[in-house]
User: Fold PH domain-containing protein from Saccharopolyspora mangrovi.
Amino acid sequence: MRWAPPAALVGCGWVLTAGAATWALLADSPTDKVFVGVLALALLAASAFGTLCRPRLEADATGVTVRTLTGRKHHSWDEITIRVRETRRLGLTGTSLELDANPDLTVLTRLDLGQDPYAAADALHALRR
Assistant:
């Protein structure tokens, strides 16, 4: 099983990056060039992360593998605890999947997984059995 950011979202990030870079090149004032240039760099970083770290989470009979910019980290089922946590900030509730393998804690959101963290946790628990 694999979970990754939605491909359409990553593609949209690349389109927005190209648009922001073009805007930065065509801007008249230096302030606009700097502001939009920083925006283009932020979009570039987010889009590159979404592209390079696909899939974010993989699971099989041996355990789970989390992919980051520094590489892949595999944890066996025996050393990992799976939790779904809800946090409330500014009146909004955010849900995340926590994979706790002492001392490593990986927190994945709906954006990382491409689906609801509860559904991913249920699939992981079913695969673990």
